[in-house]
Design goal:
Chain lengths: 319, 255, 653
């Protein structure tokens, strides 16, 4: 039994969801050998440090100088074939899912995306639906199990024992794979804190009432050095751009605390903020669904409560 | 230019998801339905492309008979005609979905010429498998860019912008191509009444292929246990502010 | 001048004036004929009554007593003095000619003298109002035109008196001079010589010519209303005022589809007549909540804008030209969306202009043809269509407010209840309005009624969509609900929402839905009167806010007051009853951003000024808006539905 896990990396360090995927992979198949694969344009970018895998293969090709999903997938497929992998795992990030989908298409095999649990002995997985508001238990009918791991479903564990061996190889890539790559980067227009990375996010929903109604929310966000988010109702009303939308079809956030003002808590919104460590709901409706997912609540009109919080923060800072 | 956009009928869940007794589906008795959000933007984009460049837009869905409602909605905002791959209501896994869509595309292209662009949603709101568009692209041997927030078509090329941390990554694809798009690509228009009336008369072609045996087969659905949270009410109205500040301080987000 | 010459001169003048008048009148008639059809037939009894009270009786004008009397004097004067026109025409030809029989009746000339004086009093007062008092309602009106008209009227009346006076001085009067004291007194100014003869001729000819000038000026000025107003009142709404006329979408030919008013040719003939009846009096502007809070909408300016477009483009269209878009050319988008459909304007208008119909038709075109409307309202329209409620909440949770109460939820196949409680979307989903639902259900059950709710099968009546102008979505909702209610066998409905009350009771009839619909305050008042609910008498000072859709559109005023006076000490606001001031949520404004200062705050201040402790309401929108309004103005007033207050009172037993 050999498992192959695809790792994403940023500046030489493996991303957290990939570490989680590797941890998941290492728990499979009762002691299977776990190989990791990363794609880079030079060998020098091989990941260092403790990884819960037995070996790391670095696919080196100049095509990997920028993100090229099909090329990465072809490299993974080549390696999987060579290793006789019975299981190919990736992180359930946007790009992880994209690469594994290409792998699945190349191999004409089923792919179970965003799994939270795998019982590979029975070819059973538990995967996420509705952005996390529902789980699906499914059976996979395939000689090789392809799956991506839902971020934060598994805690990443560093490898025990010796660090993994590192080898490089040069994959054979098709014309199509070489052509499908990022050719340009456009910097984000907005300044301020990025929603996806923010430590604190303050959001407004329908309860804000209007574009101007976001003023108290923006004020609080500024005091907390937080990013400002909003619900889908707000984006659809044209009050804020889609880039501010927190939710299943918007941005998924994972702050220390998420302050949701005037947001009722529809499942598609909660799918975007379940990564938050804590949620504070400010809502006039005691029976709003969000209160069942929140850690703290203030019952009241956000137009009264939020300015009061801002004032209290200022007072606490000066006093 | 010819554009095909694929949509899926999904229920609009509210604050909680309730399952049917057999745990194999969501209880939809009092739920409304819509085109999955990413795909709504896909339909709008397809209509805009044809408005700008001339040609024809076709909307396709794989779904039960009720999914015709979503096809009519898409035609109400301007899609010219529709193809309905009719299922009996059972779920089709991503591979089966992709091959049924592929069949329909091949037949349409044989009769009417290739689609310059085939548009999918990045993932459907319900099943969220993230793969149908990519599978279809492979089978058609066409390039595919995913998760697009901006798309411009000019001179046989598509400039595609994918959102990432800190900005957008750009791909340039040669047409014919496949794209998967995300909500935020555009703001879908509200259908006019003439549009809605015309949509009722626009042609819908139906096909009813056999459902192949699923290779990713749903056994049952489970509503995840809320961590049994009951929010600690810090107070009511403005009077709760001091307590909130305490909590923020405890967490360590108050400088 | 000889009789023959005079006759020729008079006939010539008459011919010219009549021709000019007729040409213009004919043009206006042809323009109105361009208008789309609308059914204003039948109901002859009510129409006659309207003519008698509103036109003859000047009822609506007299709602403001001073300007009302001013106008009444002039108007009644016009009627009384009408025969003198003929007398003058005859007299201009020959001083000896007069009206048969009437020309000899002393009592008639007493009336003539009296009304000449009253008319002059009216004219002078009118000048006083316009030049000295200068009320705000004239902002935007063409005052110069009015001055001209008043001047002409004064001239007509003074020349008449002058003529009669000189006739008496010359002994030419065919009636006993003593019967006309004023003319008689004035005759003392004149001798009986040649000079007076000249004056007599001068007065009668000036009188006639002034009348002819007036006749010609009439159809070119807002004084046109003397011809159109009577007709406009006749064709005014007799059925439920809150009912909007449905559009027909089942038309094969798409080009014949009327989707509201896009250009002037889409307007109905009644709407066109409306614009031709406007006198620019500004009473509508005075009571409009949008105008009162600094917005662009003035119902008067709206009608004037449409009228001006009609006159400017009408002739060209008759000649085969294309009509251009009404919005934003004649009316801006902001004005169209500012309206809360409260109907205060319609209630005030002395000539039965139906401004709300104009606004809704303009909206219908913008929404259904052009998809052009405030973005945030689009979410509401989509939610009504897809989620069956305007907030996009899950219908499965619609009856959550009833948890813990013994309310029967009607399932398909269940026997029909005696009365169905239609809760409405607001009371089902809004945390404040839910209290109304709970209280109402509790009270009805307590009184032993066989009542049930539809629960998740109750879907939005479609009122917000209809008021937005999305008639198509509204009709989908209407058909769906009529189907559900029909399947359930419902015949009697009670609702705690005036908008649902209006739609179910007045509008669903157009879609096959025929029910007896009562507002919960009506039912509760009945139960109080029957003794089935016996609350203790209360002392708390309560001021009751009339909902537009309840009081103005549907005449329900007494029932809520009966309840309030039972359980507390009622205090009325100045703007109450049918002159109530809107809370600001109507016309789909619950879902639109408000520009400028807030209507609900204005009303909240008014309520607080009564000194009451509690503000009682009978509508979930009013509950939400006024509660917000009180908070935003830093008030302490408690806002609660009448049912909630009644339930609380009963708990104190």
């Amino acid at each position: 039994m050999t498992a192959l896990v695809y790792l994403e990396q940023t500046d030489g360090a493996v991303d957290e969801p990939s570490l989680q995927a590797a941890t998941m992979a290492s728990s499979l198949g009762g002691g299977a050998e776990v190989h990791a694969v990363v794609a880079a344009d030079t060998a020098a970018l091989a990941p260092a440090g403790q990884l819960p895998v037995d070996a790391v293969q670095v696919a080196v090709h100049e095509a990997f100088g920028s993100y090229a999903p099909l090329a990465v997938a072809e490299a993974v497929v080549e390696l999987a074939g060579r290793l006789g992998a019975t299981c190919v795992v990736g992180p359930g990030t946007e790009r992880g899912n994209e690469v594994l989908a290409h792998v699945a298409a190349l191999l004409d095999l089923p792919l179970a995306a965003n799994c939270v649990a795998v019982a590979d002995a029975d070819a059973r997985v538990t995967r996420v639906r509705w952005g996390g508001s529902l789980l699906e238990e499914a059976r996979v009918d395939a000689p090789t199990l392809l799956l991506t791991v839902q971020p934060h479903a598994v805690a990443a564990e560093p490898g025990a024992g010796d660090p993994p061996s590192v080898e490089t190889f040069t994959p054979t890539l098709s014309e199509a794979a070489l052509a499908l790559r990022v050719v340009e980067r456009v910097a984000a227009a907005t300044g301020g804190v990025s929603l996806a990375d923010a430590r604190v996010v303050v959001s407004g929903g329908r309860g804000a009432g209007s574009e101007e109604g976001f003023a108290p929310i923006e004020e609080l966000a500024e005091l907390l050095e937080a990013a400002v988010g909003c619900s889908r109702a707000v984006t659809m009303a044209g009050w804020r751009p889609h880039t501010d939308q927190v939710g299943q079809t918007g941005t998924k956030i994972a702050p220390e605390i998420y302050i949701a003002c005037g947001i009722s808590g529809a499942t598609q919104h909660m799918a975007g903020c379940k990564g938050a460590k804590r949620i504070l709901a400010i809502n006039a409706d005691r029976e709003a669904p969000i209160l069942q997912s929140a850690d703290y609540a203030v019952i009241g009109d956000l137009h009264e409560v939020v300015p009061a919080i801002s004032a209290a923060i200022r007072a606490a800072r000066s006093g | 230019m010819r554009v095909l956009v694929c949509v899926k009928r999904v229920p609009m869940t509210g604050g909680t998801i309730v399952l049917t007794d057999d745990d194999r589906a969501i209880e939809t008795r009092h739920l409304g339905f819509t085109i999955s959000p990413h795909e709504e933007c896909g339909v709008e984009e397809a209509v805009r492309l044809v408005e700008a460049n001339g040609g024809e837009s076709v909307v396709l869905t794989l779904g039960p008979t009720e999914a015709e409602e979503q096809l009519r909605d898409a035609m109400a905002i301007g899609a010219d005609r529709a193809t309905h791959v009719v299922t009996d209501g059972q779920e089709w896994d991503p591979q089966a979905t992709a091959s049924a869509i592929l069949e329909a595309i091949r037949d349409d292209e044989a009769a009417n010429g290739p689609f310059d662009l085939v548009v999918f949603g990045n993932e459907s709101a319900d099943a969220g498998n993230f793969q149908v568009g990519i599978r279809v692209a492979h089978a058609l041997e066409r390039p595919v860019a995913t998760g697009l927030k901006a798309l411009t078509v000019d001179g046989g090329m598509a400039r595609c912008e994918q959102e990432t941390a800190g900005g957008r990554d750009v791909y340039v694809l040669q047409l014919p191509a496949v794209v998967t798009v995300k909500e935020g690509l555009n703001l879908p228009r509200y259908p006019s009444v003439p549009g809605r009336l015309r949509a009722q008369r626009k042609p819908v072609e139906t096909r009813t292929p056999e459902r192949p045996a699923p290779r990713l087969a749903m056994a049952r659905l489970v509503v995840p246990e809320g961590e049994g949270k009951q929010a600690e009410v810090l107070g009511e109205g403005a009077a709760a502010a001091p307590r909130v500040v305490e909590v923020l301080r405890e967490i360590g987000v108050l400088a | 001048m000889s009789t023959a010459l005079s006759a020729v001169a008079l006939l010539a003048a008459l011919a010219v004036a009549t021709a000019l008048f007729a040409r213009r009148a004919h043009l206006l008639y042809r323009i109105v004929r361009l208008g789309k059809p609308t059914d204003r037939s039948g109901d002859l009894g009510r129409r006659t009554k309207a003519e008698a009270t509103v036109v003859l009786g000047q009822r609506k004008l007299l709602q403001r007593i001073v300007p009302g009397l001013v106008h009444a004097f002039v108007f009644w004067g016009f009627i009384v003095l009408a025969p003198t026109i003929v007398m003058a025409l005859l007299g201009a030809v020959d001083a000896d000619w007069t009206f048969p029989w009437l020309g000899h009746q002393g009592w008639y000339f007493l009336l003539v003298d009296l009304f000449c004086v009253l008319v002059l009093v009216g004219v002078v007062s009118a000048f006083g109002i316009r030049k000295v008092q200068r009320p705000a309602r004239f902002e935007g009106s063409h005052l110069r035109e009015a001055d001209v008209i008043l001047g002409l009227i004064a001239l007509i009346v003074t020349t008449l008196l002058g003529w009669h006076a000189t006739q008496i001085a010359l002994g030419l009067n065919e009636w006993p001079a003593g019967w006309s004291p004023v003319s008689d007194a004035l005759s003392g100014l004149f001798g009986d010589g040649e000079a007076t003869e000249a004056f007599e001729r001068a007065f009668v000819w000036l009188h006639v010519l002034t009348i002819l000038v007036f006749l010609v000026y009439l159809p070119y000025s807002k004084h046109l209303h003397i011809a159109t107003a009577g007709i406009n009142v006749w064709f005014g709404r007799t059925r439920a005022r809150g009912r909007l006329e449905p559009l027909d979408f089942e038309i094969e030919d798409e080009s014949a589809l009327r989707l509201g008013a896009g250009t002037l040719v889409d307007m109905t003939w009644k709407q066109m007549l409306d614009t031709m009846s406007c006198t620019e009096c500004g009473r509508c502007q005075d009571v409009c909540p949008a105008w009162a809070t600094g917005k662009d909408l003035s119902p008067k300016l709206l009608i004037m804008g449409l009228r001006d477009r009609l006159f400017a483009e009408g002739p060209a269209v008759l000649g085969g030209g294309e009509a251009t878009a009404l919005v934003p050319g004649a009316v801006t988008d902001e004005v169209v969306w500012d309206c809360v459909t409260c109907g205060a304007c319609v209630h005030e208008c002395p000539v039965s202009i139906e401004h709300v119909d104009h606004v809704v038709d303009l909206r219908r075109h913008l929404v259904m043809s052009e998809s052009r409307f405030p973005t945030e309202a689009g979410t509401m329209l989509r939610d009504v269509g897809r989620s069956s409620n305007p907030w996009g909440k899950a219908q499965s949770e619609r009856a959550a407010w009833a948890d813990g109460l013994d309310v029967r939820v009607l399932e398909p196949g269940d026997p029909a209840p005696e009365i169905l409680y239609w809760v409405g979307c607001a009371a089902s989903f809004d945390e404040r309005a839910r209290a109304t639902a709970r209280a109402t259900a509790t009270l009805l059950l307590h009184a032993g009624l066989d009542v049930a709710i539809l629960g998740p099968r109750e879907s939005c009546t479609g009122d917000p969509a209809r008021r937005m102008g999305d008639e198509f979505t509204f009709q989908e909702q209407a058909r769906q609900n009529v189907g559900t209610l029909g399947d359930a066998g419902v015949t009697r409905i009670v609702t705690s929402c005036p908008h649902c009350f209006n739609t179910l009771g007045n509008e669903y009839g157009d879609f096959g839905g025929d029910y007896e619909v009562v507002h919960h305050t009506e039912l509760l008042a009945e139960l109080l009167a029957d003794g089935r609910l016996q609350p203790p008498v209360g002392e708390e000072a309560i001021t009751y806010h009339d909902s537009c859709y309840l009081a103005r559109h549907n005449d329900v005023l007494a029932a809520p007051r009966e309840i309030v006076s039972r359980i507390g000490r009622p205090l009325e606001m100045a703007r109450s009853g049918k002159r109530t001031f809107c809370c600001g949520a109507g016309g789909a404004h619950m879902w639109m951003e408000e520009r400028g200062s807030a209507i609900n705050e204005e009303r909240a201040r008014e309520a607080a000024a009564t000194g009451a402790d509690t503000l009682a309401v009978a509508c979930p929108f009013c509950t939400m808006m006024l509660d917000d309004g009180v908070k935003q103005t830093g008030g302490e007033l408690r806002v609660a539905d009448v049912a909630v207050l009644l339930a609380e009172a009963l708990e104190r037993v």
